[in-house]
Amino acid sequence: xxxxxxxxxxxxxxxxxxxxxxxxxxxxxxxxxxxxxxxxxxxxxxxxxxxxxxxxxxxxxxxxxxxxxxxxxxxxxxxxxxxxxxxxxxxxxxxxxxxxxxxxxxxxxxxxxxxxxxxxxxxxxxxxxxxxxxxx
Length: 136
Ligand code: ATP
Ligand code: MG
Prior knowledge:
Blueprint: E1 4-11, H1 13-17, H2 21-30, E2 34-41, H3 45-51, H4 61-68, E3 73-81, H5 83-91, H6 104-108, E4 117-119, H7 123-133
Antiparallel strand pairs: 1-3, 1-4, 2-3
Helix pairs in contact: 3-4
């Protein structure tokens, strides 16, 4: 049975800054994702705090929000069979040093806090995150 899902992907400031957005988008397209919507925006720190609210109690929360709002990001709605898991696989582990060969974070990530991409981690979070960027 088919299980077409939508997930939210963000190309983070470290990657946009290095003009990697088209390269990363072409990886998703090559992997069979449809990019249903996309926009390039610069978040305010308060937006980043809202987006990463689940990490509010973590020691890295403030730096994480400073970073996500430090420059433009490209947010995309990606659609594919099992999109959420498939995107997480293509992204690779949170820490680029631990990411598998061929993954986006292995190829482009600089460090655990400059890891080039975000991807929703569940169906519920995908809905919330898609709505966060594309509610209009
Ligand atoms: P993302 O949510 O950005 O897709 P993830 O799901 O792989 O990443 P999370 O555990 O949700 O990882 O962490 C969110 C972000 O917080 C990570 O992308 C990373 O940049 C940052 N982060 C996570 N753990 C650490 C850490 N130990 N030190 C510094 N930053 C961290
Ligand atoms: Mg996460």
